[in-house]
Amino acid sequence: xRKLKVGFFLFIVLFLFSLCFMGKGEVNxxxxxxxxxxxHIFGCDTLGRDLFQRVCxxxxxxxxxxxxxxxxxxALASFSAIVSFRNKKLQSFLLALVSAFKSIPTVxxxxxxxxxxGGGVFSVMSALGLSCTFSSIRVLDVKVKExxxxxxxVSLEALGLKKGRIVFFHILPSLFPxxxxxxxxxxxxxxxxxxxxxxxxxxxxxxxxxxxxxxSEARSLFFTKPHLLVFPSLFLVAIGVLVMVIKSGLSELxxxxx
Length: 258
What we know:
Elements: H1 2-21, H2 51-83, H3 88-102, H4 106-117, H5 121-148, H6 151-158, H7 163-200, H8 211-218, H9 227-252
Helix pairs in contact: 1-2, 1-9, 2-5, 2-7, 2-9, 3-5, 4-5, 5-7, 7-8, 7-9, 8-9
């Protein structure tokens, strides 16, 4: 429980800290690829924009997108898994749909949404949300199948308890532990996928600073101006580590994990 509290606290602190200092930075040709200094603690990028402000902007955007995607994906996946309880046809349809969709790489999904909706945050969130939802459906559907085969569920059905009461008072509470862990897992996946898409220039427009796009812009200057690559990388790693700490803390809440 302590690990979970510390993880959430530091995660919120990082978000609020970045929110206070975020910005796109102003172009200043005289400060192009300037080294870190007292006035620009992270230095400046290739257009003379303050790198600290842009890294904070990318951090806020990454956390916001991943939180939205993970919450929406787990909510939709949980709903579909619950609805398919004791419905073999619907379960088979969902698994077939999941198997078909998971064969399509997330990058291609991002390209598809970008071509239809244009480059922007909405395109990336939609692509990641769709991809992660189908992934979560598989995990939660397997858990529902395990629960519905339990003896106490079979006994409740034999006693004539309505399906709705079984779902909301027995199936759903049993799903909470796996839903919590899946939420953290999807968040980690969304963070890495969003950064990868931005690094490749897919989805979010280049005018919007993201951690992935900052890394992409700095990769050719790594040996001459390493600070352009190091600082975005540190923030990206910090987000990932904190999410993993939160996931570890959530798993400790489930007695069956011990």
